[in-house]
Write a structure and sequence with these properties.
The complex is a heterodimer of chains A (179) and B (51). Chain A has a three-stranded mixed β-sheet with strand order 1-3-2, with helices on one face. With 179 residues, chain A is mainly alpha-helical. Chain A has one domain. With 51 residues, chain B is mostly helical. Chain B has a domain of 31 residues. The chains are: A mainly alpha (179), B mainly alpha (51).
Chain lengths: 179, 51
């Protein structure tokens, strides 16, 4: 929450011509995104997300922040994050980008709408957990597909660092099970 | 996305349940911010939404 408030404060201090995310964009944004998009496109599910973003005119930014990703619906912006002056491993960027793009795509799925606090705490938390589980599944599927198509093991290391090893093993077993 | 079993869907929930406390705190924060706006600005503003 404090991060959210910090972001909002920063946005309010930005000049109108800068846009609300300009003041905290990462200095290596172009290179990070170029590499991440190319790797994401190695996955069929990742291509679905990229096509969705293109069709909906969604912009993608890299913010100078702790590890975080998401979608700003009012601005049609997906963001991923990396601390200032740090290199972002492409595999980490891809997993965050998959999460942010899926967050945006959830907006068109009735069962995964953004929660409103007026619904009450229990329903708010349940809706957030449903959305997080769906994002984790998509990140896992994309990591699986990238590993299958490129042999890149580092993407699995990044995925497992998020605590998704068991989920990956379950997803992999599903894909390899006889029909 | 292809061939996702019910077991794997449950694994995805297990993998993300640890965020419940943070989401609960997010809710409290949004409610507090909404109350602040109501008290200080005379209205609650747009319905708060979380990313």
């Amino acid at each position: 929450m404090s991060d959210l408030i910090a972001k909002l404060n920063s946005a309010l201090k930005a000049k109108p011509s800068e846009g609300t995310t300009a003041s905290f964009r990462h200095e290596n944004e172009a290179a990070i995104l170029d590499a991440a998009v190319k790797l994401l496109a190695k996955s069929e599910t990742g291509r679905d997300l990229l096509n969705f973003a293109r069709d909906k005119n969604i912009s993608i930014h890299v913010l100078r922040n702790k590890q975080d990703f998401g979608y700003l619906p009012e601005q049609s912006v997906v963001y991923i994050s990396c601390p200032a002056a740090q290199q972002m491993p492409t595999t980490r960027a891809v997993i965050q980008l998959a999460g942010g793009l899926r967050d945006a795509m959830q907006d068109i799925e009735p069962e995964l709408q953004r929660p409103n606090v007026k619904a009450g705490k229990e329903r708010f938390v349940r809706a957030k957990l449903d959305k997080a589980a769906d994002i984790a599944l998509w990140q896992t599927a994309i990591s699986y597909e990238i590993n299958e198509s490129t042999g890149l093991l580092e993407i699995l290391d990044e995925l497992f660092a998020l605590g998704y090893r068991t989920l990956y093993e379950g997803y992999k077993a599903d894909q390899e099970a006889p029909l | 996305m292809k061939n996702v079993s019910q077991t794997t869907l449950e694994l995805s929930r297990d993998a993300t349940n640890r965020h419940a406390l943070q989401f609960s705190k997010d809710y409290d924060g949004v409610v507090r911010a909404s109350g602040f706006m109501q008290e200080n600005l005379g209205h609650s503003g747009p319905a708060p939404r979380m990313n």
